Automatic annotation (TrEMBL):
This is Magnesium transporter. Signal peptide: none annotated. GO terms for cellular component: membrane. InterPro entries: CorA_TM1_TM2 (IPR045863), MRS2-like (IPR039204). The keyword Ribonucleoprotein does not apply. The chain crosses the membrane at residues 307-328, 340-364.
């Protein structure tokens, strides 16, 4: 693989005719092309728009200073991809990834460097492989989807490892420290759940619309624009993805006579998206299970509190009943010359009610109804 070449002050925007307009702030991008070359670009937004032929609205989606949800957009010559920290533009021949020095983006850069290297034709011949290679944009898209699914899955695993012990500790001992700890974990879970849900919804939306998936076939559109419709057959961009282990039979591919005859065939991309949809859906299910566990823990704590309050209310009601009966203006023969008896009645009834409350709590703990 060719070494990275640092290109400072990219001058591509000069051809865009921006004239005396104020230039946008330069941003750091790293570029990978189909030949295995890579280089760092310090280009402004006009240079990027001119290079990949997208409008300013699409480019704003990738602005880290603006809060845009996860999005995958298919354009005529590019795929605009905003998935959390992964902000990229994919064309049929190159990938531009924003902020390559970010700690979360560095693993994506390494994976793109490894996976987008051109395959060795000699090795293919030696193995007797006759199947075509996946389109460049699909390999790049697969790297980004795999990276974001793995990233969100790792965050979910970290949250689980911290949340379950905290919830169990809260169940055994209710304290302000444990309650505050669980509150923070629940807030983090809510935010993470929203992020995972958005990525899942974006993949589901793509899978539900064949036209949107067809827009992502950049190589096919490029080949179709370069070659007129003919019966002699055209390039086939429906190979099997080596990552998800799927294969399309040679007979199916041979039955597709022309590029335009296959323009609605999105089976390859559909299988790719389904694989990562299932992965992100599994992550969302983990978060759902965690949310249910938190809700169950809250219900359990509420039951404990209600048990304490109900027991205390019963005991106080009984004490108030006794005090109320003997406090009424009713003549008692045993109280004529012994007024101190009323004090003993109140004292004994109070001790009895306190003993009854302690007994109820002790019984509940013995049966495991409340924590120790």
């Amino acid at each position: 693989m060719a070494a990275a070449v640092v290109v400072a002050g990219e001058a591509m925007a000069a051809a865009a005719g921006t004239g005396g307009k104020k230039r946008g702030a330069s941003r750091s991008w790293i570029l990978f092309d189909a030949a295995g070359e890579e280089r760092v670009l310090d280009a402004d937004k006009y240079a990027i728009m001119h290079r990949v032929d997208i409008n300013a609205r699409d480019l704003r989606i990738l602005d880290p200073l603006l809060s845009y949800p996860s999005t995958i957009l298919g354009r005529e010559r590019a795929i605009v991809l905003n998935l959390e920290h992964i902000k990229a533009i994919i064309t049929a021949e190159e990938v531009l990834l924003r902020d390559p020095l970010d700690d979360n983006v560095i693993p994506v850069v390494e994976e793109l460097r490894r996976r987008l290297a051109p395959s060795s034709a000699t090795q293919h011949d030696a193995e007797g492989a006759e199947e075509d290679e996946s389109p460049f944009e699909f390999r790049a898209l697969e790297v980004t989807l795999e990276a974001i699914c793995s990233f969100l899955g790792a965050r979910t695993t970290e949250l689980e490892s911290a949340a379950y012990p905290a919830l169990d500790e809260l169940t055994s001992k209710i304290s302000s420290r444990n309650l505050d700890r669980v509150r923070k974990l629940k807030s983090g879970m809510t935010r993470l759940n929203a992020r995972v849900q958005k990525v899942r919804d974006e993949l589901e939306q793509l899978l539900d619309d064949d036209d949107d998936m067809a827009d992502l076939y950049l190589s096919r559109k490029l080949a179709g624009a370069a070659s007129p419709v003919s019966g002699s057959g055209g390039p086939n961009w429906f190979p099997a993805s080596p990552t998800i282990g799927s294969k399309i039979s040679r007979a199916s591919r041979a039955s597709a006579p022309t590029i335009h005859g296959n323009e609605n065939d999105v089976e390859e991309l559909e299988m790719l998206l389904e694989a990562y949809f299932m992965q992100i859906d599994g992550t969302l299910n983990k978060l759902t299970t965690l949310r249910e566990y938190i809700d169950d823990t809250e219900d359990y704590i509420n039951i404990q509190l209600e048990l304490f309050l109900s027991s205390g209310t019963v005991c106080l009601s009984l004490y108030s009943l006794v005090a109320g009966i003997f406090g009424m203006n009713i003549p008692y023969t045993w109280n004529d010359n012994h007024g101190y008896v009323f004090k003993w009645v109140v004292l004994v009834s109070g001790l009895f009610c306190a003993f009854m409350f302690v007994s109820i709590v002790a019984y509940a703990r013995h049966k495991g109804l409340v924590g120790s």
